[in-house]
Write a structure and sequence with these properties.
The protein is 60% helix and 8% strand. The chain contains five helices and four strands. It has helices at residues 4-24, 41-59, 69-73, 83-102, 123-147; strands at 32-33, 112-115, 119-122, 149-150.
């Protein structure tokens, strides 16, 4: 059986791939892309926050209003260029997701959740999904930061 305290540590450690990149980014980096890939760094930062909030609400049951603009648009609209706003947004999404994780009992981790995006998973598996989602996009951001071109 998983313990909520251990799973919070796992999630926090997994998210450091992303948070360490935030410390390296500059506002001018946000529009970098690596053609032919369509997504900019700014879009990916916002997308991480959007999906964290969706998980807090839809998987872990938090009462939130979520406007997941990147998920709705399904493409980079070029609007994610204000670094201060993006940093605040992903700090907010991390806080809400951590609160959602902390609200789970040890027994909750074996209960299942079904979504159209990834089917039926235990909450523990869903936590693995959001952790790897963030790390996956952090890897993309790292590549864009190193090799991307300003658009």
């Amino acid at each position: 059986m998983q313990s909520t305290a251990q799973l919070i540590q796992l999630w926090q450690e997994g998210r450091t791939r992303f948070t360490q990149l935030l410390d390296k980014l500059q506002e001018e980096d946000l529009s970098k892309k690596l053609p032919p890939a369509p997504n900019s760094i700014g879009f990916l930062v916002r997308h991480i926050g959007d999906v964290e909030l969706l998980f807090a609400k839809n998987v872990f049951g938090q009462e939130l209003q979520v406007r997941a603009k990147t998920v709705v648009a399904q493409r980079d609209t070029g609007e994610w260029t204000n670094f201060g706003e993006l940093k605040d947004y992903v700090a907010h999404s991390a806080q809400k997701l951590q609160q959602a994780i902390e609200a789970q009992t040890d027994e909750d981790w074996n209960s299942t959740i079904t979504t159209k995006e990834f089917g039926t998973k235990t909450k523990a598996e869903a936590l693995g999904r959001i952790t790897t989602h963030t790390a996956y996009h952090a890897g993309q951001i790292s590549m864009l930061l190193k090799y991307g071109q300003l658009s």
